[in-house]
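Lecture 7 notes: from sequence to structure.

We start with a single chain of 194 residues. Read the sequence below before looking at the structure.
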Amino acid sequence: MSIGIVACGALATHIADIVTENAIDAVIYPLPPLLHNRPEKIAGEVDALLTEIKVKHTNCAVAYADCGTYGALDSVIKAHDVKRLGGNHCYDIFAGTSKIEELMESDAGTYFLTDFLIKSFHRSVIVELGLDKRPELRDDYFKNYSRVIWLAQQPTDELKVLAHQAAQEIGLPLEIENVGYGQLSSQVLALLRN
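Now the structure, written as tokens:
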């Protein structure tokens, strides 16, 4: 039987690439990326999905960092005796914890983007915050931010245009850090080979 991977929908495509490149027999079960707007629901959704899939697979793993669950996800991980990706969020996985700490120390008002978030920015941020209907709230939401940093995994000209548009929509300057997959590949492989 294959490995079942409960994955953050924002990482699922990247994880599928890693699984394919390494010829790993795995099935990916993505959860909606919009759960990040309600992180208190992530642990419950992961728990329910693990409960459903664990009878179908030899092993299971969770492709989430903590993602704002403040340890609730780790309780689920422990209860199911599985492993998850390391770090507090995917930014740690892509850029490395020390790089994120360095960026935040230089400017605590940093708003991070990933390739996925750039592609889904209008739906994930603008619509979810209601800025499509109430654009005047933009400055209230983003008043404590001073810059946007795109942690670029697979930068393209199209994504660069979308990143600039996203930063412009929230009224902040854009900086680009080319980070690639960072630790994602090594962490996913470690999860699946244990």
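Residues 3-89+183-193 form a domain with the Rossmann fold fold (CATH 3.40.50). Keep this in mind for problem set 3.
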